[in-house]
Amino acid sequence: MIWYQYLSLGALAVFLIAMLWHFIRLIKEGKPKDLSTKSGNLPKAEVYAYTIAMMPNHKESAYLHLPSFTAGIFFHIGIFLSILLFFVFFFISPTLFPQWLQMVLALCIGICGLCGFGLFIKRMIVKKMRELSHLDDFLSNFFTTLFQFFTAIYLIAGSFAPIYYILVTILLLYIPMGKLKHMLYFFAARFHLGYFYGWRNSWPPQKNY
């Protein structure tokens, strides 16, 4: 391995320790304490919270913004794929991939990155979104979009390896401090929603079951 790969591994270690700390905090909080009388099915509610309730037609306003919702889905797919490749690159250099695989992966991740870039621009130019946004919102979008773009570039141009690994290092160190740590808190939030509405027999809606 080269120095910038060791640098990213060091950042990965810091990231894992920090996220473990966040996870321990969540565990210490325990399950929600509800004083009302239980009337629903919690397991069904939790399944609903992580599945059907995530669909745009079951959200407050996502169904009104389907292009942005779809772009967000592709953006997240690109993030997950880029993270997977980050680990793969430690074992197999992208230069050893078949050329067709390099191009397909780079194209897919590049498209996902463009979706993220589009959402970044929308956050900047749409007044309501801009007023609701903080610096962390912009930085999180910016870093994850760059991460995808440079993953795509690294797939087809190995000479960009130092820039790629330095960017990954910055991203890994930033995640536990900013909103990107929702990659962990998302699951806790959905669990609490399922618990709250399941306890009251509001989730899942009876018409769906």
How many individual helices?
8
Radius of gyration: 20 Å
The class by helix and strand makeup works out as: mainly alpha
| SSE arrangement, N to C | HHHHHHHH
Mean pLDDT: 95
Q: Helical percent range?
A: 55-70%
Count the beta strands: 0
Point out poorly predicted stretches: none
Tell me about this structure.
This protein is mainly α. The protein has a domain at about 1-10 and about 65-200. About 70% of the residues lie in helices and about 0% in strands. The chain is built from 8 helices and no strands. Helix 2 packs across helix 8, helix 3 packs across helix 6 (about 135-155) and helix 4 packs antiparallel against helix 6 (about 135-155). It is globular, with a radius of gyration of 20 Å. The termini are far apart.
Keywords:
mainly alpha; about 210 residues; single chain
Topology:
Elements: H1 3-29, H2 42-50, H3 66-88, H4 99-125, H5 127-132, H6 135-156, H7 161-174, H8 182-199
Briefly characterize the structure.
The chain has 209 residues and is mostly helical. It has eight helices and no strands. It has a domain at 1-8 and 67-200.
